[in-house]
UniProtKB/TrEMBL annotation:
Coiled coil: none annotated. GO terms for cellular component: membrane. It comes from Meiothermus hypogaeus NBRC 106114. InterPro entries: Cation/H_exchanger_TM, Na+/solute_symporter_sf. This is Sodium:proton antiporter. PANTHER family: NAPA-TYPE SODIUM/HYDROGEN ANTIPORTER, SODIUM ION_PROTON EXCHANGER (EUROFUNG). One of its GO terms (molecular function) is antiporter activity. Residues 15-376 form the Cation/H+ exchanger transmembrane domain. The lineage of its organism: Bacteria, Thermotogati, Deinococcota, Deinococci, Thermales. The chain crosses the membrane at residues 6-24, 31-49, 55-75, 87-111, 117-136, 148-168, 180-203, 215-248, 290-314, 353-371.
């Protein structure tokens, strides 16, 4: 009976995501926003038909993994390396500006040093799943600005993880542990670098003999395996899934797996975005102080990533640099994890946690709204042969 209850919740989640997503598509708005609002509608905040739990949380994580796996299948390593310098600059500046801005803003409104550090850290990591969904919807994954965003997101996750390890270490022990930061950095570099070193080997071997007659099963093994390995190391599983997709992109014509992966993703990905809405705590967002101070945090979160992305991708031209900046703006589960860690460690209080929640919701809803017209603006210039 317990399992049947979960099945009913999945049905309501998919039904709401399908209907509200369809409505947003008809209104020419990002479907991902519709799916988030669908989760809010059926979640505890409103209708109460769906509640957060381990099983739905796991399905949502699988949805994020398959989304980035699909995106990876559209992205070859040589395309990422071609924009490697810009991706690195975008990631570094996109971490530096929000962290510094959030930290000093926290101090200016009366936060102690440790809560201010957690606030800055919560503003660091990009939730690339939201941007990737919009890029996939619009069919622009082959564009240089998309490759910069995706490459920067991988580097961004590594940098964000290092910052989080340092700040959390300070909260737990009161001291900066260099050994922890170095270990995480080394493991992250070895993981990403090792995956990239496999690409030349994949180009040389005949993969069908490794698939045992089941290319899709082999693809699932690689995708889930690298996502799990990333999680073991401490990286976000979506980084491993993206790298797995990028590896298999080298032989995607030979394996013919894209349609199968896309079919599974169409089932799981809406669950991921709808569960963002299910988890929203409206009561924490209704305070006038949270709205007032949270607007300042939201502004820093948006401007910090926009400025970092714009300056890092300046070589691509004005309009494409704007697209990169907007594409790096969404925050998501990483920001909430940072705030939750701070709450558990006693470094932040409920009100400070609510500010991070406000920022995550704001960037999740606003970034896709701005990203679509920004991409259309850049594409019009390219089509007309005008200024990029």
């Amino acid at each position: 009976m317990h399992g049947m209850g979960h099945l009913v919740e999945v049905f309501f989640l998919l039904l709401a995501a399908q209907l509200v997503g369809w409505l947003f598509a008809r209104l020419k708005q990002p479907v991902v926003i519709g799916e988030v609002l669908a989760g809010l509608l059926v979640g505890p905040a409103l209708l109460g038909l769906v509640h957060d739990g381990e099983i739905l949380e796991f399905l949502a994580e699988l949805g994020a993994i398959f989304l980035l796996f699909m995106v990876g299948l559209e992205t070859r390593l040589r395309d990422i390396l071609a924009v490697g310098k810009e991706a690195f600059l975008v990631a570094v500046l996109g971490v530096l500006f929000p962290f510094v801005g959030g930290y000093f803003f926290g101090l200016s409104i009366g936060f102690a040093q440790l809560p201010a550090l957690f606030l800055g850290t919560a503003l660091v990591a990009t939730s690339v799943g939201i941007t990737a969904r919009v890029l996939l919807e619009l069919g622009v994954l082959s564009r240089n600005y998309s490759r910069i965003i995706l490459g920067a997101a991988v580097i961004d996750d590594v940098l964000g993880l290092i910052v989080l390890a340092v700040v959390n270490g300070v909260a737990q022990s009161g001291t900066f542990e260099l050994a922890v930061a170095l270990r995480i950095t080394l493991l992250s570099v070895l993981f990403v670098g090792g995956a990239m070193l496999l690409v030349p080997w994949l180009r040389r071997v005949s993969l069908p003999r490794f698939t045992l007659g089941n290319p899709f099963g082999f693809a699932l093994l690689v995708g889930v395996g690298l996502a799990a390995l990333a999680a073991i190391i401490g990286l976000a599983p979506i980084v491993g899934a993206f790298l797995a997709g990028m590896l298999l992109a080298e032989v995607r014509e030979e394996l013919a797996i894209e349609e199968h992966v896309r079919a599974v993703g169409q089932f799981l990905t809406p669950i991921f975005f709808a569960m963002v809405g299910v988890r929203l705590e409206l009561t924490a967002l209704l305070s006038a102080k949270v709205w007032l101070v949270g607007s300042g945090v939201l502004l820093i979160a948006l401007v910090g990533k926009l400025l970092g992305g714009f300056l890092g991708a300046w070589s691509q031209g004005f309009r494409r640099a704007v697209v990169v900046g907007v594409g790096m703006a969404p925050r998501g589960e990483v920001g909430l994890i940072v705030a939750a860690l701070g709450l558990a460690a006693g470094a932040v209080n409920e009100e400070e946690y609510a500010l991070v929640l406000f920022m995550v919701v704001g960037t999740t809803l606003l970034a896709p709204l701005f990203l679509r017209p920004a991409i259309a603006w850049a594409e019009r210039a390219q089509a007309s042969g005008g200024s990029p």
